[in-house]
Specification:
By secondary structure, the chain is α/β, with parallel strands linked by helices. The protein has two domains: 2-111 and 229-269, Periplasmic binding protein-like II (D-Maltodextrin-Binding Protein, domain 2, 3-Layer(aba) Sandwich), CATH 3.40.190.10; 114-225, D-Maltodextrin-Binding Protein, domain 2 (3-Layer(aba) Sandwich). Helices cover 41% and strands 22% of the residues. It has nine helices and 13 strands. A six-stranded mixed β-sheet has the order 2-1-3-12-4-13, sandwiched between helices. Strands 9-6-10-5-11 form a five-stranded mixed β-sheet. A two-stranded antiparallel sheet has the order 7-8. Helix 2 links the parallel strand 1 (32-37) and strand 2 (59-64). Helix 2 (39-54) packs across helix 8 and helix 2 packs antiparallel against helix 9. The longest helix is centred in the N-terminal third of the chain and has 30 residues, at 2-31.
Length: 271
Amino acid sequence: MKKRICAILAVTLAAAALAGCGSKASNEADKKIVVGASPSPHAEILNEAKALLEKQGYTLEIKEYNDYVQPNVALDAGDLDANYFQHQPYLDQFNEERKMELASAGMIHYEPFGIYAGKTASLDALSDGAQVAVPNDATNEARALLLLEAQGVITLKEGAGINATKLDVAENPKNIEIVEMEAAQLPRSLQDVDIAVINGNYAIGAGLKVADALAIEDADSIGATTYGNIVAVQKGHENDEKIKALVDVLKGDEIKKFIEEKYEGAVVPLS
């Protein structure tokens, strides 16, 4: 009988120990936030947020990506709790093309698109047949074309808007050649083209300054009102406690001040 009671107690204690370990592991998982991000400015902003989240008991792990595809693939696979690198139109397009269900947990900042000089020093100096590089993903190409239109370089078909492609160019007085390429390659290709329209994060990463741009998006442009960068999560996790903590810190006054001081207009916090 004693042996039976001892055996039962041993099993009970072992089960309790396992339950305790499981509870501890679950708690640690709830307090760890794994976020995928572009190196600049997103990972830089997240690094600034680390200490603020630690005060709330959270550990922030940042995984850097140099493209616009893998952070969403990793998020969908559950390898990340969130990612921070993209705007809503890009996410919508990605979801549709990849049959994924990723959602925004909050809009954090906006990065003005800029036109930067390559072989040609100004927009007025563009020669006939000049090469103009733009991002090759659909949402960012449209944004680049809208900026070129705003500067009088081209005219788009009426209503093209955020769905514009180079096939929507209605007027091209200088017969510019629109060269589509991966967004990350644009800064490296500046020397090979006349001008390039570059995403804010890649411009920052390449050491380009907004003050040096030939033109940037206006505050009331489609870019400013549509292309704010978001924290994305798997659908249904938008209100998870740790995700809400992350978004609140990124939208808080301390991060807002950091963004304004560090990026000098190249990144604009959104309240």
